Amino acid sequence: MPMLTRTPSLIALVACLAIPVHAAQPWFLRGEVVRVTDGDTIRLREHDTGVIHSIRISDIDAPETSKSKRRPGQPFSQASRKAMVDMALNQNAVAKCFEYDRNSRPVCTVVVNGKDVGAMLVSQGLAWANRASKRYVRDPRTYELEAKAKADRLGLWADPEAVEPWVWRRLCWTKKEVLPATCTSYSANVS
Fold first, then answer.
1. In the predicted structure, residue 3 carries a pLDDT above the cut 80
2. DSSP string, 38-78
3. How many helices and strands (H and E) does the chain possess?
4. Is 56 among the catalytic positions?
5. Is 32 a catalytic residue?
6. For the segment 142-183, what is each residue's pLDDT rounded down to a tens digit?
7. Is 105 noted as a catalytic residue in this protein?
8. Of 6, 45, 71, 105, which is the active-site residue?
9. Closest among 36, 45, 38 to 78, alpha carbons compared
10. pTM to 2 decimals?
11. Residue 125 near residue 152 (C-beta atoms within 8 A)
């Protein structure tokens, strides 16, 4: 019976198979927040390169702002956006990024003045823990912050019928039929 020879390529292949596969390593962006699109999306201009990145804040899903007549905004969308403006606009920030979302935006935990702005928004009752895509929740404490804001009836939790953004997008944006009353009644009050 012929003996199997150990070639360098065979040894390398076996060695590679023995290495556990890890997700991509996080990367960092450092710069100034130059725009707040809504409660969970900012634009950051990198200090080193001047490149502007549209960043999706990790862990959270904020109320949707109005995009058009057929894509109305949610209650508390402007309050959420304003809170993010107050915390982050024109401030230096560090974004720890993990992946890209379906819109090719980096999904990042953003820290301004030592504070996680996503966690701050959730603790004020102006965003949900992102249950639409749990892979975007990096810090399990986000769920605890949400539960406390809900128990304290802060922000959007003052409305017992608050609609999660992922439900809002499905009901109010993607249905091809007449918008439900929930969508149209809020769009008149929220821009």
1. no
2. ETTEEEEEETTT--EEEEEETTEEPPPPP-BTTBPPPTTHH
3. 6, 8
4. yes
5. no
6. 999 999 999 999 999 999 888 888 888 787 777 655 455 566
7. yes
8. 105
9. 38
10. 0.79
11. yes
Q: Dump pLDDT digits (tens) for 23-54.
A: 579 999 999 999 999 999 999 999 999 999 99
If you count them, how many residues does the chain have? 191
- Whole-angstrom CA distances from 104 to 53, 61, 99, 107, 124 are 10, 17, 9, 9, 28
**What residue type is assigned to position 92 of the chain?**
N
User: Do 115 and 124 contact (CB within 8 A), yes or no?
Assistant: no
The alpha-helical segments, DSSP class H, found in 89-135 are: 117-123
* CA distance readout (Å), 49 to 25, 28, 29, 41, 86: 21, 13, 10, 20, 25
Q: What torsion, rounded to 10 degrees, do the Cα atoms 76, 77, 81, 82 define? A: -40
Residue 168 near residue 157 (C-beta atoms within 8 A)? no
- The active-site residue out of 43, 46, 64, 164 is 64
Q: Of the residues 30, 46, 56, 138, which is catalytic?
A: 56
